[in-house]
Amino acid sequence: xxxxxxxxxxxxxxxxxxxxxxxxxxxxxxxxxxxxxxxxxxxxxxxxxxxxxxxxxxxxxxxxxxxxxxxxxxxxxxxxxxxxxxxxxxxxxxxxxxxxxxxxxxxxxxxxxxxxxxxxxxxxxxxxxxxxxxxxxxx
Length: 139
Prior knowledge:
Blueprint: E1 2-5, H1 20-38, E2 47-58, E3 68-77, E4 81-90, E5 95-107, H2 118-125, H3 135-138
């Protein structure tokens, strides 16, 4: 799934490019929109998915006037977690950053994870998975 991003004045650091901390927000926008698309109307009712791991590779800087988008793919659905791969590219398709994140199930009342419900898994299995032939994403 692809989502265009808006670069705001406050995203730019003293070096004239998007600050590295802002990339986490960009990837979060993509993850949230991805889950809203593939798990529409799902009420978590005290059970949810939470971010437990985030790793980012900064490939090339993004500047104030660049046109960029975040692409989000599932890498795998586990017993209690979901792994996503995301990339930020410019309008020419040049890779600027890549991210792998893990979301875990969380029962807020019990304070721990729980097995992925069958209906959640079924919704996620309809999502866009990482292309198997794209080594650029999995590095």
